[in-house]
Amino acid sequence: MRVKPIALVTAATKGIGLQIAKDLATHGLTVLVGSRNLEHAETAAKSIGAHARAFQLDVTNQASIAAAAKRIRNEFGRLDVLVNNAGMSHAGKQGISHAASLDELRSVFETNVFGVVAVTQAMLRLLGEAPAARIVSVDPSNPQRALFGSVCSPSKTALDAPTLAFAIEFEDAGANAACPGFTSTNLNNFEGTRTAGRAA
Ligand SMILES: NC(=O)c1ccc[n+]([C@@H]2O[C@H](COP(=O)([O-])OP(=O)(O)OC[C@H]3O[C@@H](n4cnc5c(N)ncnc54)[C@H](OP(=O)(O)O)[C@@H]3O)[C@@H](O)[C@H]2O)c1
Fold first, then answer.
1. Each residue of 53-89: pLDDT tens digit?
2. Atom 29 (ligand 1) nearest CA
3. For burial by CB atoms within 10 Å, which of 30, 33, 44, 48 has the most?
């Protein structure tokens, strides 16, 4: 019998993350639906189907990340796919350089850069147990970054560095960034030109 691959999607309750989770489930994966709000994760998991599981996961909280990794080890023993989808575009108002405080920048970097590194590091051993592990970080492509303002864009540019480092270090596993296109979600006040359904 074919063993179902296990995928963890961070922030999979809405927008691009929910669509990625649905698509992975349609392709036969067991999907671990991450959200900082467990009830939201449970609702999303129900909407995805019988092979989805809700996980409380705040990518800026080390205890939450460690608890998720421990639960994945206990219940599945490995992780085949990690999708680093959780992200924020600003920590107050949509950022223009002179208006954004350093605290706002730090807060966005905490989620979009250090959150990705923290979750990836915590899952590396589990990914190492999978026969062909994949790490994907959701990231706008360079031409798109102008659309994301001067708080989000620098954080996503900074995210390229650890993504590349993981790609070099784990060449066999495969670590990549994927751009969904300018997609209509809460992140951009639904101004994106694509729908999450088509984007993922
Ligand atoms: N929309 C676009 O055009 C576009 C283009 C390129 C890349 N992206 C990237 O795609 C990803 C998904 O964004 P989206 O457009 O689908 O926006 P979205 O609907 O606003 O989703 C963002 C998700 O990130 C979650 N999140 C924020 N901080 C978190 C944390 N500390 N821990 C766990 N989850 C956290 C939010 O959780 P809550 O529900 O709890 O608030 C929300 O579910 C982001 O990384 C974004 O940068 C988007």
1. 999 999 999 999 999 999 999 999 999 999 999 999 8
2. 86
3. 33
